[in-house]
Design a protein that fits this description.
The structure holds 2 protein chains of 2 kinds. Chain A contains 1 helix and 26 strands. Chain A is mainly beta. Chain A has a single domain, classed as TolB, C-terminal domain (Neuraminidase). By secondary structure, chain B is mainly alpha-helical. The longest helix of chain B is centred in the N-terminal third of the chain and has 34 residues. The chains are: A mainly beta, B mainly alpha. The interface between A and B is medium-sized, with 41 and 29 residues.
Chain lengths: ~300, ~400
């Protein structure tokens, strides 16, 4: 190797090492600032646009494809839609037929499925066909008490409040399978489907469990030291588990192994504070949505 | 490098400090001892003597708790309540935060049961054990027609722990295990020949304190239980299901189809989370007092409010059902009526003339109707009239920002 080649190689090496150092520095600054960025109020979904308050909302459904939020206005017996920017779009009353709607999903065939507490039904709403059909879901002789809903790959996941187990329904609404959690003696009160299975919350035993798609336990951890009355959970983009505490009116964050990280939000009535929150979920646009039954609104927080 | 002379100088200095320290100890220690024994020049020592004497007192260390000159708290105490006790009893401070905690312990009121200086009883108890318990638990009768022997003998510790427990009602162990710690399993089997399945859940039928029935069977029997077991256990089910209860209790079933319900708890039959299916002390066959039953799940709520300065009398007496539905409700917190109607059942006057409330009055923070519970928190508050914030200013400016 000639001297000039050696010098140029050294120059290239220096450049590379400096670039690498710069890249690492930028990455570290970026990740540090991201990690340190607190959650801040971004939008409120309330009834202002519809001319009527949302009365005791109990659930939020997010349609990523249509870029819409759907708030289940349980006290107002309607479904209220908003744009992803939080602007009011439409209030749907299903011809005034809904009786205490509690949760909803939309399936691949564009049918809306609503849990109606008033008649203990899983009601299908086919808007194109203008058809509203209540269905009492049964497994053998036993009628289910539908609670939380989710949908994936043609399967409707229905949490049965009576047993605290998740029923997997096919398109004919028959129970194809049950997902039960042997480690949750008091049953599941909320669940979220993820790519690697199901995360579920046991309220009375104050426990978070991760189950495989087949229902087998992957991991579990106790949250009782930090959480008073857990009511809902969500899995963040970084894999952290967010647990909504209804009575403390805050959110406790744990890593996937169950180590407590931090608590945020407080009880109150002003914008950004929580009062009797009931559900938490992430939207596909980086927002953390909290359904507040007590304040009649959904608040979206972002970083 | 240090010179020899400087090293020698340090050695002299070291010896000087040693002599000074020993002299200081020789002067200070007797004074310290005197300082404590000097207390008894004025305070009669006999008043601080007994079979059991608190260790600091026995060691003459009055200043472990008291400041002889000036202090923030009554009795010239350095700290108040349990904070003072836990300054030595550190292990207990940790332990007494686990599981179900006895109310005086949770409130930091050690002196409800204990005395600070000397007692004729173990554990520095203020009164004989049963008297200490009955001092607060006034609703418990002194005796029943048929009284459980440990209860009759005032041996509350036979079954209960005084400070905290991981089991309900501060039991020493799981209820059945507590029973079996005295009662032999074989003897029990002989007395329950027709029992379906393995003998268990003793408290479902028996009152562990006493009752007016032989065998301390609880006073009120569930009608199907009085007729036999088959009514509910017809298909070989041990526990039965929620449906097996709702077959008869139809009105309760309707209550379950509401926004919020108590269709929750361990096991397949959710009704038995609160009710005994066999026998109870009152007509609702509750597994304990209202407060005990509610506390089973709502430990956090009861703990949050029980030490508040101002509490609604019904909340204070543990009458949860005065305001809350027990099976299901379409209202938040399972209230029996909306935030106005629930209060005006009793507070009629306030419903007519007060801060405007009702459908036409909007809470500017949320757009929702202003009700009594917009400003009041009957469960408990540190502000007069159970206000959510201070009534002097903070509460009003929540909405009236210009004022």
């Amino acid at each position: 190797m000639s001297i000039s080649e050696g010098v140029s190689m050294k120059y290239v090496k220096n450049m590379l090492s400096q670039s690498a150092l710069l890249a690492v520095s930028i990455f570290m600054v970026a990740t540090t600032s991201m990690a340190a960025e607190p959650w801040a109020w971004k939008a409120t979904l309330d009834g202002t646009g519809s001319g009527r308050v949302i009365d005791m909302p109990t659930a939020l459904y997010i349609d990523a494809e249509r870029q819409r939020y759907y708030v289940v206005d349980s006290g107002g017996n309607r479904l209220v839609s908003f744009s992803k920017e939080g602007n009011f779009l439409l209030a749907f009353t299903a011809e005034e037929k809904l009786q205490i709607p509690y949760d909803m999903i939309r399936d691949n065939a564009d049918v809306i499925w609503v849990v109606e507490r008033g008649r203990n039904s899983l009601t299908s709403i086919n808007i194109k066909a203008k058809e509203i059909l209540p269905h009492i879901i049964k497994d053998g002789q036993k009628a289910l008490v539908p609670d939380r809903l989710d949908y994936k790959d043609g399967i409707i996941y229905v949490l049965d409040k009576q047993t605290g187990q998740i029923a997997l329904l096919g398109s004919d609404l028959t129970v194809k399978n049950w997902i039960s959690c042997a480690e949750c003696p008091s049953g599941i009160v909320d669940f979220k489907l993820t790519n690697d299975g199901i995360w579920a919350l046991d309220q009375l035993d104050k426990k978070v469990v991760q189950l495989g798609a087949d229902g087998k336990l992957i991991r579990q951890f106790d949250i009782g030291q930090k959480v008073e009355f857990p009511v809902s959970l969500a899995i963040g983009p970084a894999g952290y588990v967010y647990v909504l505490d209804r009575h403390a009116a805050d959110i406790d964050v744990f890593d996937a192994q169950g180590s407590f990280k931090y608590t945020f939000l407080t009880k109150g009535w002003q914008r950004g504070a929580l009062y009797y929150p009931i559900e938490i979920l992430f939207d596909p646009w980086g927002g953390l949505c909290v359904v507040e039954e007590g304040n009649g609104r959904v608040e979206v927080f972002g970083r | 490098m240090q010179s020899v002379s400087s090293w020698g100088g340090q050695k002299i200095m070291f010896n000087y400090y040693r002599i000074f320290f020993i002299s200081w100890l020789a002067i200070v220690l007797p004074i310290a001892a005197l300082a404590d024994t000097v207390c008894f020049d004025c305070h009669k020592k006999e008043a601080f003597s007994g079979k059991v004497v608190h260790q600091p007192l026995a060691n003459g260390q009055c200043s472990a708790c008291h400041n002889p000159h000036v202090a923030h708290f009554k009795g010239l105490l350095e700290q108040e309540g349990s904070a003072l006790c836990f300054s030595c009893h550190a292990k207990e401070q940790v332990a007494f935060k686990q599981g179900m905690v006895h109310q005086p312990v949770r409130s930091g009121q050690c002196l409800v049961c204990h005395v600070a200086h000397a007692s004729s009883r173990e554990g520095l108890l203020k009164d004989p054990l049963s008297a200490a318990c009955f001092g607060c638990h006034t609703k418990l009768p002194a005796k029943f027609q048929y009284t459980h022997t440990p209860y009759a003998q005032g041996q509350c510790y036979s079954c209960h722990l005084p400070h905290q427990s991981v089991f309900g009602q501060l039991l020493k162990d799981e209820p059945d295990k507590v029973c079996l710690s005295c009662h032999k399993s074989q003897d029990l089997q002989k007395g329950h020949l027709n029992y379906p399945g393995t003998l268990r859940d003793c408290l479902s039928c028996h009152n562990p304190h006493g009752s007016s029935r032989k065998g301390i069977v609880r006073d009120v029997l569930h009608a199907p239980f009085a007729q036999g077991c088959k009514e509910c256990h017809d298909k070989g089910e041990i526990q039965g299901s929620t449906q097996s209860c709702l077959r008869c209790h139809e009105a309760v079933a309707t209550g379950m189809f509401t926004r919020h319900s108590h269709l929750t708890g361990k096991g397949e039959n959710k009704c038995v989370s609160c009710h005994s299916p066999h026998a109870g002390n009152e007509k609702n066959l509750l597994k304990g007092s209202q407060l005990q039953v509610c506390r089973g799940c709502h430990t956090d709520t009861i703990a949050r409010y029980e030490n508040k300065l101002y509490r609604h009398p019904k909340a204070k007496e543990g009458s949860c059902t005065n305001c809350h539905e027990v099976h299901g409700s379409n209202r938040i917190a399972m209230l029996r009526a909306d935030g106005n109607a629930i209060c005006t059942r009793c507070h009629e006057t306030q419903g007519k003339f007060t801060h405007p409330v009702g459908e036409k009055v909007v809470d500017v923070r949320t757009g929702l109707m202003v009700t009594c519970i917009t400003c009041h928190l009957p469960m408990g508050s540190d502000f007069k009239y159970e206000l959510i914030y201070s009534g002097s200013k903070d509460l009003c400016i929540q909405c009236h920002k210009r004022y």
